[in-house]
Design a protein that fits this description.
By secondary structure, the chain is of the alpha+beta class. It contains 11 helices and 10 strands. The protein has a 7-stranded mixed β-sheet. Strands 5-4-7 form a 3-stranded antiparallel β-sheet, with no helix packed on it. It starts with a helix and ends with a strand.
Length: 264
């Protein structure tokens, strides 16, 4: 069986929840690198199983599992060897979850401290505003009340937060460790070490993830792939394509061909 015939992806943008992005994917023998999302991600395992790893632990999710992952929660996920893995992921604006937390009198900053929220459900996700809001509310309340998930947040220095903010604000610019060393008057190896400790990835990997995350938003606009590459900070289309396929699972061309905006 040829892997490239199995690795498929379809992306749709809905008008609910202020531009909900829906990704349906099937993979075989695929391992995604350690990464994060800039939105909340809600994933339902439709077929097969998925391994997922966070900073200090990992576990296996089977068919019918649904997992809600906060923005910037570092994780790695992969399928099982020679086993087809099909899932649907929804990328949800942060304001939606903030609103749900406000309605339920939940502290949003504390909600962000948990790396994931998981539940097994009897039927696939119903992509409607009411159903999704109810599912998110259930995931938050059940996982918090169970006490199973533990906080993994460590206190970061103000200097470190400044470095992090700088990378987020300038993700599409060329930034080297030497540049960070000069700007923040800190040893570059210390910066690298602290990133691995607090974030779980290097500054370069963090910047690459930011570039890929921001590039996905541009596929719904009328611009070329080469323009997207330059817009998010890659120096050419080939460089962009290499990292995009590594982080997303398919080439930019396939992703663009299978992306569409749902009409009312």
């Amino acid at each position: 069986m040829k892997t490239n015939l199995i690795n498929t992806i379809k992306v749709q943008k809905s008008n609910i929840f202020d531009g909900l992005e829906i990704k349906s994917a099937t993979f075989l023998d695929k391992c995604f690198p350690t990464h994060f999302h800039t939105d909340w991600s809600l994933t339902f395992i439709e077929k097969g199983s998925e391994n997922i790893a966070f900073k200090d632990f990992e576990f296996l999710m089977h068919s019918s599992a649904v997992v809600l992952i906060p923005p910037n929660s570092i994780h790695k996920n992969w399928g099982n060897k020679k086993s087809i893995w099909t899932y649907r992921s929804l990328y949800i604006n942060e304001d939606v979850v903030k609103y749900i937390c406000k309605k339920q009198k939940l502290d949003y900053t504390q909600i962000l401290e948990l790396p994931y929220y998981i539940k097994y459900i009897n039927s696939p996700i119903n992509v409607s505003q009411k159903s999704l809001a109810q599912l998110i509310k259930t995931l938050l309340l059940e996982n918090i009340s169970s006490g199973i998930l533990k906080k993994t947040v460590e206190h970061k220095s103000s200097y470190f937060n400044e470095v992090l903010t700088h990378l987020v604000d300038n993700y599409n610019k060329k930034i080297k460790l030497d540049d960070l060393e000069k700007q923040f008057c800190a040893n570059k190896f210390k910066i690298q070490k602290q990133f691995k400790k607090f974030i779980g990835i290097t500054p370069l990997e963090y910047q690459t993830t930011m570039r890929i995350e921001n590039s996905k938003r541009l596929f719904f606009e009328d611009i070329s792939i080469s323009q997207i590459a330059l817009e998010v900070g890659f120096y050419d289309q080939s460089h962009f394509s290499h990292y995009f396929k590594k982080y997303v699972g398919v080439s930019p061309g396939i992703y663009k061909a299978n992306s569409k905006i749902l009409q009312d």
